[in-house]
Design a protein that fits this description.
Elements (H helix, E strand, L loop, with lengths): L1 H24 L14 H9 L3 H6 L5 H10 L2 H6 L3 E6 L1 H7 L8 H9 L2 E3 L4 H7 L1 E3 L5 E7 L2 E4 L2 E2 L5 E3 L2 E6 L14 H8 L3 H7 L3 H8 L5 E5 L1 H5 L3 H9 L3 H8 L1 E2 L12 H7 L1 E5 L11 E8 L4 E3 L2 E10 L2 E6 L6 H8 L1
Parallel strand pairs: 1-8, 9-15
Antiparallel strand pairs: 1-2, 3-4, 4-5, 5-6, 7-8, 9-10, 11-12, 12-13, 13-14, 14-15
Helix pairs in contact: 4-7
């Protein structure tokens, strides 16, 4: 009797253990050997995203950028390789800078486009955490957050990033020009390489004048105020420039010389200006309300050197491929701007 009772107890325990084990280990569908869940769903979602090339090709505002990619041979890379983060120049960026894809040397165009592509897939949080990224052209692109949103270097990001199967796409309305190197540079390159003109450059970055200084011969010479010149401006002038959104643009244009009658492909040197005795400076700014006209600045030779208006030329005749750069120690303020402000 005792033996039969012990056998019955053992059978009950075995049944309970079997039931417990079956409940814990049985996967949906009854297959106890079913594999654990994987991230295949996420992988499938990524695979269903368009590639960077497809994203760019589908956006009518990126037609010029797409043409540029095709010209320099990057279309296949953004289709099949990666991941990349792309700051795609809109049609506005090309138009503002005056770049026509079919008329630009492919090597130059390639360096420009490379400066808009970064290795790796970077969301906005990743960009901010990094603080700066290095483009395929080797240029450092600072990242910062402003009141109006995120910027890469001097270009605001337009909207959110768009994920692709092989990276991330952002759109910008400003061209990020790569640094120039070698003995021959444009006026833009000379200003950048010098290191004394960061305030002056920041006022030009992203504007049509940036394109003129880099790519065209529309400007014959630049009177470039140094950072020290900006730092020593009178307080009332500083207040003027800070209070009016067009005032700095107005002042910048006053320093870009293209006197009527001067050959567009000839440098305008300090010797040329000294011989003239005065130089006509344009004071037109579209949309500013200041109108269009000219002001003549006296050019005088002194014991200190050449003076143009109130400014002393401290480094003359910095030669560039498309003009001359002359460093000056004072920011020149147009009389018409002061008169407009005092009305």
């Amino acid at each position: 009797m005792a033996k039969r009772l012990l056998t019955l107890v053992l059978l009950v325990c075995l049944a309970a253990l079997t039931a417990c084990t079956s409940t814990e280990n049985t996967a949906p569908g009854g297959d106890i050997l079913a594999p654990l869940p994987t991230d295949s769903g996420q992988a499938a979602a990524v695979e269903n995203l368009p590639t960077l090339t497809e994203l760019i090709a589908s956006d009518p505002d990126l037609v010029f950028f797409a043409n540029g990619l095709n010209t320099v041979g990057l279309t296949d890379d953004l289709q099949n390789d990666g991941p990349f983060t792309v700051f795609a120049m809109s049609n506005v960026a090309f138009s503002t800078t005056g770049i026509i894809v079919s008329q630009v040397d492919p090597a130059l165009l390639g360096s420009i486009i490379d400066n808009h592509v970064v290795s790796g897939e970077l969301a906005q949080a990743d960009l901010l955490a990094a603080g700066s990224v290095v483009s395929l052209a080797g240029g450092s692109l600072p990242i910062r957050e402003t009141e109006d949103g995120m910027q890469v270097w001097y270009a605001p990001l337009r909207g959110e990033g768009r994920p692709a199967s092989n990276g991330m796409l952002y759109v910008i309305d400003t061209m990020l020009l790569p640094p120039e190197s070698g003995p021959e540079m444009s006026m833009w390159g000379v200003l950048q390489a010098d290191g004394r003109f960061t305030t002056f450059l920041s006022a030009i970055e992203g504007t049509s004048q940036m394109g003129n200084l880099r790519f065209s011969e529309a400007i014959d010479a630049v009177l470039a105020p140094t950072d020290e010149a900006f730092a020593t401006m009178p307080a009332d002038v500083v207040a003027l420039l800070e209070s009016d959104p067009f005032a700095m643009e107005f002042v910048v244009n006053f320093h870009l010389l293209s006197p009527d009658g001067w050959p567009q492909d000839a440098d305008l040197t300090t010797a040329d200006m000294a011989e003239m005795g005065e130089i006509s400076t344009r004071v037109a700014v579209g949309g500013s309300g200041f109108g269009f006209g000219f002001e003549k600045l006296p050019v005088t030779t002194t014991d200190e050197g050449l003076r143009i208006g109130d400014a002393l030329v401290i480094t003359p005749d910095m030669d560039a491929t498309n003009g001359s750069v002359h460093a000056i120690d004072t920011v020149l303020i147009p009389e018409s701007l002061l008169e407009h402000t005092n009305q």
